[in-house]
Amino acid sequence: MPQPAIEIAVQDLEGVRIALGEGADRIELCTALGVGGLTPSAALIERAGELARDAGRNSFVHVLVRPRAGGFDYSAGELDLIALDVRRARALGAGGVVIGALDGQQRVNLPGVAGLIAAADGLDVTFHRAIDVAADAADAVPALADAGVRRILTSGTAPRAVDGVEVLRHWVEAAGDRIEVMAGGGIDDGQIPAIAAAGVEAVHLSARHTVTGAASGPGGGHPEYETTDAAAVRRAVAAVRALSS
């Protein structure tokens, strides 16, 4: 069975270090995974890129650019902001960006995406799981390939990728070598063989656990926060590597 790449969604520098140390192929750098992920700070992008380059992994950091929680129907002003963040991520050394936009009819916003690809100026572009709620998902995949998107991140339109395996398989077959299909959505190491059997080029997981810190006081929110679980990353990498053994 072909061995897919493994991408880990991380929210902090420790997550970057873990993903590098445990042998992940790349990361999606973001914050606020509890709401699906938001754009990380410029400082986090810069430091993550430095860690990756020091490890000889120049294209390791792919930056999620999503300005807010909620849906993906963005105003013109929001698209301008996303484009600016894409250009900033590129200037700060990102190896790729992760974007997505729908229109008012929940169809993929191809003109908006084209503007973001132009802003990426040669970086790898991944279209994120907005594809899973797009009304025209199946038709949009080849259109995204034509627009210059390198890969799509998808659960096969199911709540979890393991439940969308047949759609993933169909999209892989339909895409051919025009666009990569990366499976993501509730994946753990035990599901990787079944998902990889669909022929996906990559698997994406957050591999996170909850940590309880000191009380943050009034206005600081709950003391719990999520961070990357090194053991979960290690198990996922081992599961992927075992596919070729």
From TrEMBL:
<dbReference type="InterPro" id="IPR005627">
    <property type="entry name" value="CutC-like"/>
</dbReference>
<dbReference type="GO" id="GO:0005507">
    <property type="term" value="F:copper ion binding"/>
</dbReference>
<dbReference type="GO" id="GO:0005737">
    <property type="term" value="C:cytoplasm"/>
</dbReference>
<dbReference type="InterPro" id="IPR036822">
    <property type="entry name" value="CutC-like_dom_sf"/>
</dbReference>
<protein>
    <recommendedName>
        <fullName>PF03932 family protein CutC</fullName>
    </recommendedName>
</protein>
<comment type="similarity">
    <text>Belongs to the CutC family.</text>
</comment>
<keyword id="KW-0963">Cytoplasm</keyword>
<dbReference type="Pfam" id="PF03932">
    <property type="entry name" value="CutC"/>
</dbReference>
